[in-house]
Amino acid sequence: MRIKISEDILPISSLKKDTVNVIGKLKSSGRPMVITINGKAEAVLLSTKLFEKLVSEKTKVM
Fold first, then answer.
1. What is the C-alpha separation between 41 and 36, in angstroms, rounded?
2. Which domain holds residue 27?
3. pLDDT digits 0-9 by tens, 7-48
4. Number of domain units in the chain
5. DSSP letters of 4-62?
6. What pTM, to 2 d.p., does this model score?
7. Contact 5, 34 (CB under 8 A)
8. What CATH number should be reported for the domain holding residue 41?
């Protein structure tokens, strides 16, 4: 799972304007998305499927 810089970094204003499509993209790409505020990375958004996968993998390691 590699982040594609040209596709997976998004200003929060774009997320606010087009939330439904952004969530659709998260689900279809299987990649997390970096959300920026004033050009600075502030949060990472991921689909529930990816979140559950990551939690499951972490639990197996422990």
1. 4
2. 5-61
3. 899 999 999 999 999 999 999 999 999 999 999 999 999 999
4. 1
5. -HHHHEEEHHHHHHSHHHHHHHHHHH---EEEEETTEEEEEE--HHHHHHHHHHHHHH-
6. 0.82
7. no
8. 3.40.1620.10
